[in-house]
Design goal:
single chain; alpha+beta; three-stranded antiparallel beta sheet; 6 helices; 8 strands; 33% helix
Length: 184
Amino acid sequence: MKKAYLFKSERLGFRNWVESDLKMLEILNSDVDVMEHFPKTLDKKDNEVLLQKLKWHYQTHSYTYFATEILESGGFIGFIGLAFQDYQTEFTPAIDIGWRLKKSAWGKGFATEGAKKCLDFGFNVLNLDKIISTCTGNNSKSENVMKKIGMRKLGEFNHPRLKEYPEYETCICYEIYKNMWQKE
């Protein structure tokens, strides 16, 4: 069965979420290594809520953290995409680019490839002017992806949604503007 992707990169397909994605989302978000830079793994109820939020976000904004699959096999590897963030900081509200991939997809360039395609989608389809990305201060793998896709570091901040988790609260923020992207 040929899947209906919203857009594709060289190796990846990006689509909205469907109810049958719940089990794959549960597997992804219950992996302690995948969730190393988050306060906790997610249980079934957490994932049910997340799935509905991801679907709602697409219906509301025409983008989300897209379900991401390998084109050749159709295998689910996680999510890469865009989300509107309105938590209180000096750089929000803003559109954020983010990714979360299962371990078997690590080290293959999928996060960078997918993030570049999502930047292209954000700037050239959605006509956004600026996109940010954040991660915990010690998440060097995500920070490296931010650098590889041409983002520049804005600095550190205390994430207002992580006040109850001091070991995760200090985060970093990167940004990229459409005119920077077009020079890439």
